[in-house]
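<goal> How does this chain fold?
<body> The protein record starts here
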Amino acid sequence: MPERSPAHGIDPRGPRVAAGITSLLLLVDVFLALTGLASSAALPAASVSERMQDPAFLLLGAIAFLFLWGVLSPRTAPWGVLFRTVIAPRLSPPAEREDPRPPRFAQGVGLVVSLTGLLLQLAGVPWGLTAAAAAAFVAAFLNAVFGLCLGCQMYLVLQRAGLVGRARPRLP
């Protein structure tokens, strides 16, 4: 079944598995940020090169790349491929499927939050990367453990407002 078609939908367990892996990566990133340059008073005095070499910056950059991959090509994103090829065949079919657009939007929200943390680090803002990684961790953790996708909820609010997810009539 095509994963892009809302009529067919996606297995809702896939995004939760991806959120679980992402939350583990973000937890490591928060730890690295708390113990490294990102949360240090020395950050403003550090050069841009030193800020970019901080392990927390590098890991958050990799996580941002994974979010970008999930937005641009969800079918080839690593956690989706892992779920479809290794995990899903061992599970019973899902009771119901869900629209793939909200989880994809949530990946975009994760990308924006991660990029914000990276930009704050480059600008020399102490605790900026730490706060962004922690916020992304909380969102990913809520999705993985409780099935509460904050980005998906944002999508639904924006959809009700008519800002996303519906074709708009063209003006003459």
Remarks:
- The chain has one domain: 13-160.
- The two ends are 37 Å apart (CA to CA).
- The helical segments are 13-35, 48-53, 55-72, 78-87, 101-122, 128-146, 150-160.
